[in-house]
Structures are given as C-alpha cells and as structure tokens.
Design goal:
21% helix; 4 helices; alpha+beta; Hypothetical Protein Pfu-838710-001; 194 residues; two-stranded antiparallel ribbon; 48% strand
C-alpha cells in the first residue's frame, strides 16, 4: 500500500440544472456542517502573475492565493493544480491552508507587499458531510448555483479517489450536470465561456 499523500485536494465542481434532487438527498443522507456567507479575494504575487492566456484564448490560472472571509473565520489558501497534459482536466491540487485572525490586516499586509487583487467571489455556502465526501453547495453572485464535491478519505491514488466522486453521483442519481473544471475566478474572468 502506498504512502498517503498530504495537502492534496480531490474535488469536482458541478453546475446543476436542477439542484433540488441533490438538496433533498443531502437533507436525508448527509450531515449539515455549516451554512455561511463567504467572500473570497484572489491575489497575484508582486513578482509574477498566476494568470495566463490558455490555448483557447481565455484567462486561466494553475495557481491561486486566496483570502477567504466568512461569518466566523478568515483563512489563507495557496493551491497549485495538476492537470491531465492531454485534456487539461484537473486531476488534483496541492493545497496549503491556514487560519488568520484579522482579514483587514491580512489584506493590508498583502497589498503593502505588492500583491494585486485579481478577483472577488461572493457566495452563500452550505457544507455537508457524507461518509468520505464533503459537499459545498454554493449560490455565487453573478454566476449561479454550483456544488463542489471533495473526497476527504485516505488518498493513495488521486485518479482512483476522483473516480469515487463519480460513483457517488451515480448512486445519488445525479445525471443532469455540467462539470466545471475551473474555479469561480476563471468563470468571472471569462463570462459566458463555461
């Protein structure tokens, strides 16, 4: 058995035409962890930009630095995506996240150090837990309703663990979905392209 990989995030983001079947299933089978308002502020470092123009001529990024402000906490997260080289589909992300106590001071420090704001995402989030999976159901301003499903169990093989998410969707009976392979900032940078 391989060694468990740490700081790896395995998730998919879906746009559901009708979120009601999933909402019913979650209420009947999962545990509500929290519901809150969140503001995510994305930054570029002073010496480079995470943003680039991809092969389709769209703004893209394979790295994020995000400050998340919610009702009761602030966190800072750095992510680096690993994608399938042929398809560009995200396989998993390296993720490092820490808590912060004062969002205003944190943002002030980042800006004084030359970090530039690249996107602001405001959303209402409900987080649910079912076995080894966490569901983040988001109503995102200017974008709509989405669900992120993250595998939270032991990770030995990111590809195999990602497949477990799709097996769960099949078990739930979710069929009418669209996989969104980029984050909310990408969607804001490229309106109408997702």
């Amino acid at each position: 058995m391989g060694k468990q990989k740490k700081n790896i995030e395995i998730e998919i983001r879906l746009c559901l035409k009708d979120p009601r079947p999933l909402a019913r299933w979650l209420k009947n089978n999962a545990t509500l962890l929290k519901a809150c308002e969140q503001t995510d502020i994305y930054f570029d470092p002073p010496d480079k930009s995470f943003i680039f123009i991809n092969d389709q001529g769209l703004k893209d990024a394979d790295e994020w630095l995000r400050v998340r402000i919610s009702d009761s906490e602030t966190s800072v997260c750095y992510k680096k995506w690993h994608r399938n080289k042929k398809t560009g589909v995200s396989l998993y992300a390296d993720e490092i996240e820490i808590s912060a106590s004062d969002s205003r001071k944190l943002i002030s420090i980042l800006k004084r150090l030359g970090f530039r704001e690249t996107a602001v995402v405001k959303k209402h989030r409900e987080s649910w837990r079912y076995e080894d999976f966490e569901f983040d159901c988001d109503q995102v301003q200017k974008l709509g309703y989405f669900v992120e499903i993250e595998y939270k169990g032991k990770v030995n093989n990111p590809k195999r663990e990602r497949e477990k998410i799709f097996l769960l969707l099949k078990k739930i009976g979710i069929k009418d979905l669209k996989i969104i392979d980029r984050g909310y900032p990408w969607m804001l940078w490229n309106p109408g392209k997702w």
